Amino acid sequence: MIFTVFVTSGVLEKNYSLSQILANFTLLNEYMGFSDIDGVYWTLKQELKFYFIILILILFGVVERYRIWLSIWLVLTAAHTFFNQPTFMGWFISPGYSPYFIARIGFYLFYRDGQSKFTHVIIFSSLLLSIIKAYEQANSFIVNPGDLEKTIAALITSTFFLLMYALTSGKIKINNKNIYVSLGAMTYPLYLIHSVAGKSLIEKYSGDFGYTETAIIVTLIMLAFSWLIYQYFEKGLVTPAKVFIIKQLRAYNL
Fold first, then answer.
1. 12, part of any domain
2. What is the pTM of this model?
3. Which of 111, 157, 215, 251 makes an SS bond possible with 134, Cβ 3.0 to 4.6 Å?
4. Which of 196, 229, 199 is nearest to 36 (CA)?
5. CA distance 120 to 110
6. DSSP state, residue 87
7. How many structural domains comprise the chain?
8. Is the Cβ–Cβ distance between 218 and 201 less than 8 Å?
């Protein structure tokens, strides 16, 4: 957020109040009457809802009864996808993106416990719902998409599912995990700085250097800063956070 404020203030001469910045830090800014500094932060709020639900399951000691609550969640998601019911589901967690949350739990169970009929049903049901979501959502990212563009979006989603399936089932072996861990860790800061800050740089300098050239240069800059943020900020927080989480899990015999 600090990076985005710094870049947009200097490049686009945007002005942010201290109240807006502090409110955005809480991720509760909408309830306080402040708009997002970067629109992509909305996904963080969806994640917080998910983590809060998992916390509730842990506190009630039922998180390991995942066959029950994961099945209920999947059925509700399917009902919302096909019938737009239940309407209250969005208060707890995004129904449109629930297939991805459910899938990643399924892949973890697949990795931890091995193959089972239950995990296969969870993963492939989530895949079906995700394909539908990707096909429908193409309108949000592509101008006037046709059936071909929508199908490509669905195929891209399917490709990532197949990749995760291959990784968690052991069909793909990774030798040097550190490289992939670093690349994976970089995607998070990249996601959070590329949108407003990256686009503002492209808009500002594309007239001087050409759009394609500017886009390539800005992409490299965003990748570089993502690595710096991961290496010198996030990495220092990983170990203490991991120790805290492990202690809490052990306290609940998980």
1. no
2. 0.80
3. 157
4. 196
5. 8
6. T
7. 2
8. yes
The rounded distance, in Å, linking the Cα atoms of 86 and 138 is 24
CB atoms within 10 A of CB 135: 19
Q: Contact 83/61 with Cβ under 8 angstroms?
A: no
Domain boundary among the residues 173, 195, 218 is at 173
Q: Is residue 92 part of a domain?
A: yes
Residues of the domain holding 253: 185-254
Query: What is the residue whose two structure tokens read 């991991």?
Result: 242
Task: Determine the Cα–Cα distance for residues 11 and 38; give it in Å rounded to an integer.
Answer: 15
Give how far the C-alpha of residue 28 lies from the chain's centroid of Cα atoms, to the nearest Å: 18
E strand residue ranges, 96-153: none
Structure token pair of residue 29: 């800014």
Residues 166 and 205 in one domain: no
Residue reference for tokens 């066959």:
67
Q: Of the residues 173, 206, 234, which one is the last residue of a structural domain?
A: 173
Q: For residue 190, what are the CA distances in angstroms to 89, 177, 242?
A: 30, 20, 22
Total residue count of the chain as it appears in this document:
254
- Sign for the CA dihedral angle at 16, 17, 20, 25 comes to positive
Same domain, 151 and 189: no
> Does 129 fall in a domain?
yes
